[in-house]
Amino acid sequence: MQTEARVGVGVEGGGGQRVLNSAHGGVVVEGGGAGNVLAAHKQRMLHNQQSQIGTVSQLLAGGVAGAVSKTCTAPLARLTILFQVQGMHSDVATLRKASIWHEASRIISEEGFWAFWKGNLVTIAHRLPYSSISFYAFERYKHLLWLMLGVQNQGENVSADLCARLVGGGLAGITAASITYPLDLVRTRLAAQTNIIYYRGIWHALRTISREEGVWGLYKGLDATLLGVGPNLAISFSVYDTVKSYWQFQRPDDSPILVSLACGSLSGIASSTVTFPLDLVRRRMQLEGAGGRACVYKSGLFGTFRHIIRTEGLRGLYRGILPEYYKVVPSIGIVFMTYEKLKLLLSNYPAN
Q: Which domain holds residue 247?
């Protein structure tokens, strides 16, 4: 499950002073002296000017960051999906022979090199709104929760700050996933196709699923998604936010790109490890009845869990975790790094 998150970043003020945006849009300047009043006023004016384009900047930067990340890691993402759904219609005994290199070789020989990017167009179509909504919603939810918890400045109350990040991340993920879910389902079905092509593209898949399975067929597996996306985004946002804040406090001179890459990768590994079984169940439920095939799991979310454990064991819930790990570090690193750079560029553009 893709895990994208974002943290508010300190801005270096004049004279080497550290200026932090508060939950109310104000500014706190560390250090004494009468000159700090003028510096704080200037920074407040700058913040107000930038906040006028903040929404557009966050939406655009988040969307582009998600699209770039998904395109770069599409081959590993498709391998993950193919491994996740192998147990649905295959003899479990044959799955022990599967390996990343064997499956990658099969794709190249049977489908061609560009098949690694099968479904990537719908992935981008899904990621642009998903990333934009999740990044923007996290900022809004976090600031609202800061107000509710009485937090004036980031870092002044560690427990309340962490709570706001956890809850805000979860709510942001649920909001984004609910709005964009049909595209996620279509992406899974397109990526899971191998030699037999049943869905010829995004619009054909949407029409075919709606006609054959009803409108609610576009929301198969939504319960598993919502159950997993909250913890996934909460862990991702909170780990990224917390580790980055601590890192910048301890080593303020380190490269922001390096910090974003490292912290984003750690957050992705943590969230993927915890929520991967739910992601696997989501993928299999999304493929229920696809292409006219018989349904395998007929007893809902928890029945699907029981069926997988009974037929494939606990290891079956982590089928495909290895390519997912290979994907997480570059994927999350790229999305955080791209988002931070784009937001910085877009925020500074009107001042040029």
A: 11-351
